[in-house]
TrEMBL record:
<protein>
    <submittedName>
        <fullName>Membrane fusion protein, Cu(I)/Ag(I) efflux system</fullName>
    </submittedName>
</protein>
<dbReference type="GO" id="GO:0015679">
    <property type="term" value="P:plasma membrane copper ion transport"/>
</dbReference>
<feature type="domain" description="CusB-like beta-barrel">
    <location>
        <begin position="314"/>
        <end position="386"/>
    </location>
</feature>
<dbReference type="InterPro" id="IPR051909">
    <property type="entry name" value="MFP_Cation_Efflux"/>
</dbReference>
<dbReference type="GO" id="GO:0030288">
    <property type="term" value="C:outer membrane-bounded periplasmic space"/>
</dbReference>
<dbReference type="GO" id="GO:0060003">
    <property type="term" value="P:copper ion export"/>
</dbReference>
<dbReference type="InterPro" id="IPR006143">
    <property type="entry name" value="RND_pump_MFP"/>
</dbReference>
<dbReference type="GO" id="GO:0046914">
    <property type="term" value="F:transition metal ion binding"/>
</dbReference>
<dbReference type="Pfam" id="PF25975">
    <property type="entry name" value="CzcB_C"/>
</dbReference>
<dbReference type="GO" id="GO:0016020">
    <property type="term" value="C:membrane"/>
</dbReference>
<dbReference type="InterPro" id="IPR058649">
    <property type="entry name" value="CzcB_C"/>
</dbReference>
<dbReference type="InterPro" id="IPR058790">
    <property type="entry name" value="BSH_CusB"/>
</dbReference>
<dbReference type="GO" id="GO:0022857">
    <property type="term" value="F:transmembrane transporter activity"/>
</dbReference>
<keyword id="KW-0732">Signal</keyword>
<keyword id="KW-0406">Ion transport</keyword>
<keyword id="KW-0813">Transport</keyword>
<feature type="domain" description="CusB-like barrel-sandwich hybrid">
    <location>
        <begin position="198"/>
        <end position="309"/>
    </location>
</feature>
Protein backbone atom coordinates (compact mmCIF):
# COMPACT_ATOMS: atom_id res chain seq x y z
CA UNK A 1 0.00 0.00 0.00
CA UNK A 2 1.34 3.44 -0.93
CA UNK A 3 1.79 6.13 1.69
CA UNK A 4 -1.02 8.18 0.13
CA UNK A 5 -3.35 5.19 0.21
CA UNK A 6 -2.44 4.37 3.77
CA UNK A 7 -3.02 7.98 4.84
CA UNK A 8 -6.40 8.11 3.17
CA UNK A 9 -7.41 4.88 4.87
CA UNK A 10 -6.24 6.09 8.20
CA UNK A 11 -8.12 9.37 7.95
CA UNK A 12 -11.25 7.53 6.87
CA UNK A 13 -10.99 5.20 9.83
CA UNK A 14 -10.52 8.09 12.17
CA UNK A 15 -13.49 9.92 10.70
CA UNK A 16 -15.65 6.82 11.09
CA UNK A 17 -14.49 6.37 14.66
CA UNK A 18 -15.24 10.02 15.39
CA UNK A 19 -18.73 9.71 13.95
CA UNK A 20 -19.46 6.61 16.00
CA UNK A 21 -18.07 8.29 19.08
CA UNK A 22 -20.26 11.35 18.53
CA UNK A 23 -23.29 9.07 18.22
CA UNK A 24 -22.92 8.13 21.84
CA UNK A 25 -20.78 4.97 21.75
CA UNK A 26 -18.07 4.84 24.42
CA UNK A 27 -14.67 4.06 22.96
CA UNK A 28 -11.96 2.44 25.03
CA UNK A 29 -9.26 4.04 22.95
CA UNK A 30 -8.41 7.69 23.54
CA UNK A 31 -8.96 9.54 20.25
CA UNK A 32 -6.25 12.17 20.82
CA UNK A 33 -3.72 9.47 21.63
CA UNK A 34 -4.67 7.46 18.51
CA UNK A 35 -4.34 10.50 16.27
CA UNK A 36 -0.93 11.32 17.71
CA UNK A 37 0.35 7.79 17.17
CA UNK A 38 -1.09 7.59 13.65
CA UNK A 39 0.58 10.83 12.67
CA UNK A 40 3.85 9.61 14.17
CA UNK A 41 3.65 6.50 11.98
CA UNK A 42 2.92 8.57 8.90
CA UNK A 43 5.92 10.85 9.62
CA UNK A 44 8.15 7.78 9.95
CA UNK A 45 6.95 6.44 6.64
CA UNK A 46 5.33 3.33 8.09
CA UNK A 47 1.82 2.83 9.28
CA UNK A 48 1.49 2.68 13.09
CA UNK A 49 -1.47 0.85 14.49
CA UNK A 50 -2.76 2.11 17.83
CA UNK A 51 -1.97 -0.49 20.48
CA UNK A 52 -4.82 -1.97 22.41
CA UNK A 53 -5.11 -0.38 25.87
CA UNK A 54 -4.00 -2.67 28.67
CA UNK A 55 -4.11 -2.72 32.41
CA UNK A 56 -6.85 -1.92 34.87
CA UNK A 57 -9.10 1.12 34.55
CA UNK A 58 -7.43 3.86 36.60
CA UNK A 59 -10.03 6.60 36.14
CA UNK A 60 -12.83 7.88 33.91
CA UNK A 61 -12.55 11.01 31.74
CA UNK A 62 -15.13 13.29 30.19
CA UNK A 63 -15.98 11.92 26.68
CA UNK A 64 -15.27 15.32 25.11
CA UNK A 65 -11.72 15.37 26.48
CA UNK A 66 -12.47 18.05 29.07
CA UNK A 67 -10.32 18.03 32.25
CA UNK A 68 -13.08 16.36 34.24
CA UNK A 69 -12.27 13.00 35.84
CA UNK A 70 -13.90 10.45 38.10
CA UNK A 71 -12.70 7.38 39.99
CA UNK A 72 -15.99 5.59 39.27
CA UNK A 73 -18.23 5.35 36.17
CA UNK A 74 -20.39 8.41 35.64
CA UNK A 75 -22.34 10.19 32.92
CA UNK A 76 -22.43 13.68 31.46
CA UNK A 77 -25.44 15.94 31.79
CA UNK A 78 -26.62 14.87 28.32
CA UNK A 79 -26.51 11.14 29.25
CA UNK A 80 -23.16 10.05 27.76
CA UNK A 81 -20.82 7.77 29.68
CA UNK A 82 -17.38 8.95 30.74
CA UNK A 83 -14.53 7.24 28.86
CA UNK A 84 -12.65 4.56 30.78
CA UNK A 85 -8.88 5.23 30.85
CA UNK A 86 -6.72 2.14 31.35
CA UNK A 87 -3.27 2.08 32.91
CA UNK A 88 -1.38 2.05 29.59
CA UNK A 89 -3.18 5.22 28.49
CA UNK A 90 -2.28 7.21 31.60
CA UNK A 91 0.62 9.20 30.15
CA UNK A 92 2.98 10.96 32.58
CA UNK A 93 5.63 13.25 31.25
CA UNK A 94 7.79 12.84 34.36
CA UNK A 95 7.61 9.01 34.36
CA UNK A 96 11.07 7.57 33.60
CA UNK A 97 11.56 4.84 31.04
CA UNK A 98 11.72 1.27 32.23
CA UNK A 99 15.09 -0.31 32.73
CA UNK A 100 14.39 -2.87 30.03
CA UNK A 101 14.67 -0.15 27.39
CA UNK A 102 11.07 -0.47 26.22
CA UNK A 103 10.46 3.22 26.75
CA UNK A 104 7.30 2.47 28.77
CA UNK A 105 7.13 3.07 32.48
CA UNK A 106 6.45 -0.01 34.53
CA UNK A 107 3.75 -0.15 37.13
CA UNK A 108 4.46 1.13 40.57
CA UNK A 109 7.08 3.67 39.46
CA UNK A 110 4.95 6.76 40.12
CA UNK A 111 6.83 10.02 40.52
CA UNK A 112 9.86 8.42 42.07
CA UNK A 113 13.06 8.42 39.98
CA UNK A 114 14.59 5.20 38.77
CA UNK A 115 17.81 4.03 40.36
CA UNK A 116 19.70 1.83 37.88
CA UNK A 117 21.87 -0.76 39.55
CA UNK A 118 19.95 -0.67 42.83
CA UNK A 119 17.63 -3.38 44.03
CA UNK A 120 14.11 -2.52 45.07
CA UNK A 121 13.60 -3.81 48.58
CA UNK A 122 9.86 -3.23 48.73
CA UNK A 123 7.19 -0.67 47.80
CA UNK A 124 5.54 1.60 50.35
CA UNK A 125 2.13 3.23 50.34
CA UNK A 126 2.28 6.65 48.60
CA UNK A 127 -0.04 8.18 51.21
CA UNK A 128 2.21 7.20 54.10
CA UNK A 129 -0.01 4.42 55.40
CA UNK A 130 1.75 1.48 57.12
CA UNK A 131 1.26 -0.70 54.05
CA UNK A 132 4.02 -2.25 51.92
CA UNK A 133 4.18 -4.58 48.96
CA UNK A 134 6.94 -6.79 47.53
CA UNK A 135 5.79 -6.00 43.97
CA UNK A 136 4.69 -2.80 42.18
CA UNK A 137 1.06 -1.90 42.74
CA UNK A 138 -1.40 0.98 42.98
CA UNK A 139 -3.56 2.09 45.84
CA UNK A 140 -7.32 2.57 45.71
CA UNK A 141 -6.84 6.07 44.26
CA UNK A 142 -4.70 4.80 41.40
CA UNK A 143 -1.45 6.17 42.85
CA UNK A 144 1.74 4.14 42.38
CA UNK A 145 3.46 2.68 45.43
CA UNK A 146 6.90 4.20 46.04
CA UNK A 147 9.96 1.92 45.69
CA UNK A 148 12.36 1.59 48.64
CA UNK A 149 15.86 0.54 47.59
CA UNK A 150 18.59 -1.41 49.35
CA UNK A 151 21.35 0.81 50.65
CA UNK A 152 19.03 3.77 50.67
CA UNK A 153 19.66 7.21 52.03
CA UNK A 154 21.70 7.25 55.24
CA UNK A 155 19.23 9.83 56.52
CA UNK A 156 15.77 8.28 56.56
CA UNK A 157 14.23 11.76 56.37
CA UNK A 158 15.77 12.47 52.95
CA UNK A 159 13.10 12.99 50.31
CA UNK A 160 13.58 12.41 46.57
CA UNK A 161 11.28 14.36 44.27
CA UNK A 162 10.99 13.97 40.50
CA UNK A 163 11.54 17.01 38.21
CA UNK A 164 7.89 16.97 37.19
CA UNK A 165 6.69 17.08 40.74
CA UNK A 166 9.17 19.85 41.59
CA UNK A 167 7.68 21.93 38.82
CA UNK A 168 4.09 21.20 39.79
CA UNK A 169 4.53 22.04 43.46
CA UNK A 170 6.59 25.17 42.81
CA UNK A 171 9.71 24.09 44.71
CA UNK A 172 12.41 26.77 44.58
CA UNK A 173 15.79 27.01 46.25
CA UNK A 174 18.44 29.66 46.88
CA UNK A 175 22.16 29.71 47.60
CA UNK A 176 23.23 30.43 51.18
CA UNK A 177 25.25 33.66 51.21
CA UNK A 178 27.00 35.95 53.62
CA UNK A 179 25.25 39.30 53.91
CA UNK A 180 24.56 42.10 56.35
CA UNK A 181 21.28 41.40 58.14
CA UNK A 182 19.68 44.58 59.41
CA UNK A 183 16.14 45.53 60.29
CA UNK A 184 15.49 49.23 60.74
CA UNK A 185 13.27 50.13 63.68
CA UNK A 186 11.11 53.13 62.79
CA UNK A 187 9.45 55.05 65.62
CA UNK A 188 8.18 58.62 66.10
CA UNK A 189 10.29 60.99 68.16
CA UNK A 190 10.18 64.41 69.79
CA UNK A 191 12.86 67.09 69.86
CA UNK A 192 13.79 68.08 73.41
CA UNK A 193 16.24 70.39 75.12
CA UNK A 194 19.55 69.09 76.37
CA UNK A 195 18.91 69.30 80.11
CA UNK A 196 22.60 70.09 80.71
CA UNK A 197 22.37 73.26 78.60
CA UNK A 198 19.42 74.98 80.32
CA UNK A 199 20.00 77.80 82.84
CA UNK A 200 17.61 79.72 85.08
CA UNK A 201 18.35 83.34 86.12
CA UNK A 202 17.13 83.91 89.71
CA UNK A 203 18.14 85.70 92.93
CA UNK A 204 18.93 84.01 96.23
CA UNK A 205 17.26 86.70 98.26
CA UNK A 206 13.97 88.58 98.15
CA UNK A 207 14.29 91.39 95.64
CA UNK A 208 12.44 94.02 93.61
CA UNK A 209 12.88 94.25 89.86
CA UNK A 210 14.23 97.71 89.15
CA UNK A 211 14.87 97.46 85.40
CA UNK A 212 14.57 94.85 82.62
CA UNK A 213 16.68 95.07 79.48
CA UNK A 214 15.10 94.94 76.02
CA UNK A 215 15.21 91.12 76.01
CA UNK A 216 12.20 88.88 75.65
CA UNK A 217 11.17 85.31 74.87
CA UNK A 218 12.72 84.00 71.65
CA UNK A 219 15.68 86.40 71.67
CA UNK A 220 19.21 85.07 71.44
CA UNK A 221 21.58 86.36 74.10
CA UNK A 222 25.31 86.16 74.70
CA UNK A 223 27.13 85.19 77.85
CA UNK A 224 27.59 88.28 80.07
CA UNK A 225 24.83 90.28 78.36
CA UNK A 226 22.82 92.33 80.97
CA UNK A 227 19.28 91.06 81.54
CA UNK A 228 17.77 92.61 84.68
CA UNK A 229 18.64 94.91 87.58
CA UNK A 230 17.20 94.17 91.04
CA UNK A 231 17.22 95.85 94.45
CA UNK A 232 17.70 93.36 97.29
CA UNK A 233 18.14 94.65 100.87
CA UNK A 234 20.04 91.51 101.92
CA UNK A 235 22.49 91.87 99.03
CA UNK A 236 23.03 95.57 99.75
CA UNK A 237 23.75 94.80 103.42
CA UNK A 238 26.36 92.22 102.43
CA UNK A 239 27.90 94.70 99.97
CA UNK A 240 28.17 97.39 102.69
CA UNK A 241 29.92 94.91 105.00
CA UNK A 242 32.38 94.02 102.22
CA UNK A 243 33.27 97.67 101.61
CA UNK A 244 33.65 98.35 105.33
CA UNK A 245 35.89 95.30 105.81
CA UNK A 246 37.78 94.86 102.53
CA UNK A 247 40.17 92.32 103.99
CA UNK A 248 37.49 90.26 105.68
CA UNK A 249 37.06 87.04 103.80
CA UNK A 250 33.73 86.25 105.46
CA UNK A 251 32.07 89.35 103.98
CA UNK A 252 33.24 88.47 100.46
CA UNK A 253 32.04 84.87 100.83
CA UNK A 254 28.62 86.05 102.03
CA UNK A 255 27.96 88.25 99.01
CA UNK A 256 29.20 85.54 96.66
CA UNK A 257 26.77 83.07 98.26
CA UNK A 258 23.96 85.46 97.27
CA UNK A 259 24.92 84.72 93.62
CA UNK A 260 26.38 88.16 92.89
CA UNK A 261 28.81 87.89 89.98
CA UNK A 262 32.57 88.43 90.37
CA UNK A 263 32.43 91.37 87.98
CA UNK A 264 29.90 93.21 90.17
CA UNK A 265 31.89 92.46 93.33
CA UNK A 266 35.09 93.75 91.73
CA UNK A 267 33.34 96.97 90.64
CA UNK A 268 32.07 97.57 94.20
CA UNK A 269 35.55 97.02 95.62
CA UNK A 270 37.03 99.42 93.04
CA UNK A 271 34.51 102.23 93.54
CA UNK A 272 34.05 101.63 97.27
CA UNK A 273 30.32 102.23 96.81
CA UNK A 274 27.19 100.08 97.10
CA UNK A 275 25.00 100.36 93.97
CA UNK A 276 21.29 100.85 94.44
CA UNK A 277 20.48 97.90 92.11
CA UNK A 278 22.53 94.87 91.19
CA UNK A 279 22.65 93.81 87.51
CA UNK A 280 22.15 90.17 86.58
CA UNK A 281 23.69 89.02 83.26
CA UNK A 282 23.16 85.98 81.01
CA UNK A 283 25.22 83.03 82.28
CA UNK A 284 25.56 81.50 78.74
CA UNK A 285 24.96 81.95 75.05
CA UNK A 286 21.52 80.75 74.13
CA UNK A 287 17.89 81.35 73.44
CA UNK A 288 15.52 83.03 75.90
CA UNK A 289 12.87 80.37 76.47
CA UNK A 290 10.98 82.28 79.14
CA UNK A 291 10.92 85.81 80.59
CA UNK A 292 9.07 86.35 83.86
CA UNK A 293 10.80 89.52 85.03
CA UNK A 294 8.58 92.59 84.97
CA UNK A 295 9.75 96.01 86.11
CA UNK A 296 8.51 96.85 89.60
CA UNK A 297 7.59 93.29 90.55
CA UNK A 298 8.72 91.64 93.74
CA UNK A 299 10.58 88.35 93.27
CA UNK A 300 11.00 85.94 96.14
CA UNK A 301 14.26 84.10 96.61
CA UNK A 302 14.53 81.41 93.94
CA UNK A 303 11.87 82.83 91.61
CA UNK A 304 12.73 82.44 87.92
CA UNK A 305 13.38 85.72 86.16
CA UNK A 306 14.71 84.28 82.88
CA UNK A 307 15.11 80.79 81.45
CA UNK A 308 17.83 80.41 78.82
CA UNK A 309 18.86 77.33 76.81
CA UNK A 310 21.83 76.58 74.58
CA UNK A 311 20.42 74.98 71.38
CA UNK A 312 23.76 74.18 69.73
CA UNK A 313 23.12 70.53 70.66
CA UNK A 314 19.70 69.00 70.99
CA UNK A 315 18.07 65.73 72.07
CA UNK A 316 15.63 63.57 70.17
CA UNK A 317 13.57 61.27 72.41
CA UNK A 318 11.81 58.23 70.95
CA UNK A 319 9.76 55.44 72.54
CA UNK A 320 10.74 51.99 71.24
CA UNK A 321 8.27 49.09 71.62
CA UNK A 322 9.36 46.41 74.03
CA UNK A 323 9.62 43.69 71.36
CA UNK A 324 12.07 45.82 69.31
CA UNK A 325 14.24 46.83 72.22
CA UNK A 326 16.43 43.70 72.20
CA UNK A 327 17.95 44.66 68.85
CA UNK A 328 18.99 48.19 69.89
CA UNK A 329 22.37 48.95 71.40
CA UNK A 330 23.98 52.15 72.65
CA UNK A 331 26.09 53.62 69.87
CA UNK A 332 24.01 52.28 66.97
CA UNK A 333 23.45 54.62 64.05
CA UNK A 334 20.17 56.47 63.86
CA UNK A 335 18.59 58.75 61.28
CA UNK A 336 16.32 61.61 62.35
CA UNK A 337 14.03 63.13 59.75
CA UNK A 338 12.34 66.46 60.24
CA UNK A 339 10.51 68.48 57.58
CA UNK A 340 13.02 69.38 54.93
CA UNK A 341 16.05 67.69 56.45
CA UNK A 342 17.59 64.38 57.49
CA UNK A 343 20.20 64.21 60.26
CA UNK A 344 22.53 61.39 61.27
CA UNK A 345 23.19 60.58 64.92
CA UNK A 346 23.71 57.72 67.35
CA UNK A 347 21.82 56.21 70.24
CA UNK A 348 23.39 57.75 73.32
CA UNK A 349 21.15 56.48 76.11
CA UNK A 350 18.59 53.71 76.58
CA UNK A 351 16.50 54.67 79.59
CA UNK A 352 16.35 51.99 82.30
CA UNK A 353 12.59 51.56 82.62
CA UNK A 354 9.59 50.42 80.58
CA UNK A 355 6.44 52.50 80.42
CA UNK A 356 3.63 50.46 81.98
CA UNK A 357 0.89 51.89 79.77
CA UNK A 358 2.64 51.79 76.39
CA UNK A 359 5.06 48.89 77.02
CA UNK A 360 7.84 50.93 75.44
CA UNK A 361 11.25 52.20 76.49
CA UNK A 362 12.63 55.65 75.77
CA UNK A 363 15.90 56.15 73.97
CA UNK A 364 17.89 59.34 73.47
CA UNK A 365 19.72 60.55 70.40
CA UNK A 366 21.97 63.62 70.59
CA UNK A 367 22.38 65.79 67.51
CA UNK A 368 24.33 68.95 66.68
CA UNK A 369 22.07 71.90 65.90
CA UNK A 370 24.36 74.74 64.82
CA UNK A 371 21.79 76.47 62.63
CA UNK A 372 18.93 76.09 65.11
CA UNK A 373 16.75 74.06 62.72
CA UNK A 374 15.65 71.69 65.49
CA UNK A 375 13.34 73.35 67.97
CA UNK A 376 11.98 71.99 71.26
CA UNK A 377 8.81 69.86 71.00
CA UNK A 378 9.20 69.42 67.24
CA UNK A 379 8.08 66.01 65.89
CA UNK A 380 10.59 63.78 64.09
CA UNK A 381 10.75 60.37 62.43
CA UNK A 382 13.47 58.17 63.89
CA UNK A 383 15.01 55.16 62.13
CA UNK A 384 17.47 52.97 64.04
CA UNK A 385 19.61 50.52 62.07
CA UNK A 386 19.59 47.39 64.22
CA UNK A 387 21.48 44.20 63.41
CA UNK A 388 25.03 43.17 62.63
CA UNK A 389 27.30 45.54 60.74
CA UNK A 390 29.44 42.66 59.39
CA UNK A 391 28.24 40.03 56.86
CA UNK A 392 26.90 36.83 58.39
CA UNK A 393 25.57 33.56 56.96
CA UNK A 394 21.94 34.23 56.10
CA UNK A 395 19.03 32.67 54.21
CA UNK A 396 15.69 34.07 53.04
CA UNK A 397 13.12 34.10 55.84
CA UNK A 398 10.91 31.79 53.76
CA UNK A 399 13.56 29.06 54.07
CA UNK A 400 13.31 28.88 57.88
CA UNK A 401 11.02 26.23 59.36
CA UNK A 402 10.02 26.93 62.96
CA UNK A 403 7.68 24.96 65.18
CA UNK A 404 8.49 26.55 68.51
CA UNK A 405 10.89 23.86 69.68
CA UNK A 406 12.44 23.20 66.26
CA UNK A 407 14.40 25.40 63.89
CA UNK A 408 15.39 23.87 60.57
CA UNK A 409 15.90 24.39 56.85
CA UNK A 410 15.60 22.01 53.91
CA UNK A 411 18.87 21.35 52.10
CA UNK A 412 18.68 21.01 48.31
CA UNK A 413 21.13 18.20 47.55
CA UNK A 414 20.55 18.33 43.81
CA UNK A 415 18.88 15.78 41.51
CA UNK A 416 15.63 16.19 43.40
CA UNK A 417 17.04 15.17 46.79
CA UNK A 418 16.04 17.20 49.86
CA UNK A 419 16.86 16.69 53.53
CA UNK A 420 16.04 18.71 56.67
CA UNK A 421 18.83 20.15 58.79
CA UNK A 422 18.61 21.67 62.25
CA UNK A 423 19.94 25.23 62.47
CA UNK A 424 20.16 28.04 65.00
CA UNK A 425 18.45 31.23 63.85
CA UNK A 426 19.60 34.71 64.75
CA UNK A 427 18.62 38.23 63.80
CA UNK A 428 16.14 39.04 61.05
CA UNK A 429 15.97 41.92 58.65
CA UNK A 430 15.38 42.90 55.02
CA UNK A 431 13.67 39.55 54.36
CA UNK A 432 16.61 37.45 55.61
CA UNK A 433 17.43 35.61 58.82
CA UNK A 434 20.87 35.00 60.26
CA UNK A 435 22.05 31.38 60.61
CA UNK A 436 24.28 31.15 63.67
CA UNK A 437 24.93 27.41 63.36
CA UNK A 438 24.11 24.55 61.00
CA UNK A 439 24.83 26.04 57.56
CA UNK A 440 27.73 27.37 55.56
CA UNK A 441 27.86 29.70 52.59
CA UNK A 442 27.47 28.01 49.22
CA UNK A 443 24.88 25.40 50.20
CA UNK A 444 21.37 25.52 48.74
CA UNK A 445 18.17 25.70 50.77
CA UNK A 446 14.54 25.39 49.75
CA UNK A 447 12.64 28.68 49.82
CA UNK A 448 9.23 27.68 48.41
CA UNK A 449 6.99 24.64 49.02
CA UNK A 450 9.37 23.66 51.81
CA UNK A 451 6.52 22.89 54.21
CA UNK A 452 5.22 20.22 51.83
CA UNK A 453 8.63 18.57 51.53
CA UNK A 454 9.23 18.88 55.26
CA UNK A 455 5.92 17.14 55.99
CA UNK A 456 6.84 14.29 53.66
CA UNK A 457 10.32 14.11 55.20
CA UNK A 458 8.88 13.82 58.71
CA UNK A 459 6.46 11.17 57.49
CA UNK A 460 9.23 9.19 55.83
CA UNK A 461 11.37 9.35 58.97
CA UNK A 462 8.43 8.14 61.05
CA UNK A 463 7.78 5.24 58.68
CA UNK A 464 11.47 4.33 58.70
CA UNK A 465 11.30 3.99 62.47
CA UNK A 466 8.75 1.19 62.03
CA UNK A 467 10.04 -2.31 61.46
CA UNK A 468 10.67 -3.00 57.78
CA UNK A 469 8.77 -6.01 56.41
CA UNK A 470 10.55 -9.32 56.86
CA UNK A 471 11.17 -11.74 54.02
CA UNK A 472 8.39 -13.99 55.32
CA UNK A 473 5.98 -11.08 55.35
CA UNK A 474 7.02 -10.03 51.88
CA UNK A 475 6.72 -13.52 50.49
CA UNK A 476 3.29 -14.01 52.03
CA UNK A 477 1.77 -11.00 50.27
Amino acid sequence: MSRAGWLAGTLAALAAGGAGYGAGRVSDVAAPLSIARAWAGFAAGTPAAAPTPTGPVVYYQDPDGKPVYSLSPMMTEDGRLFRAVQASEDLRFDRPAAEDGSGQAGPGEGDGPKNPGRTVRYYRNPMGLPDTSPVPKKDSMGMDYIPVYDGGDPDPSTVTVSPGRIQRTGVRSAVVERRVVSRPVRVPGTVALDERRVTVVATRADAYVDHVEDVTTGDRVRQGQPLVSVYAPEINAAAAQLIANPGFDGARRRIRNLNVSEAVIAEMERTRTVPRAITWASPRDGLVLERRAIEGMKAAAGDTLFRIADLSRIWVLADVPEHDLAGIRVGEAATVRVPGRSLAGRVEVIYPQVNRETRSTRIRIELPNPDGLLLPDMYADVEIATGATEPVVAVPEAAALETGSRQAVLIDGGEGRFAPRAVELGRRGDGYVEIRAGLRAGERVVTAANFLIDAESNLKAALASLAAPTSDQEGGR
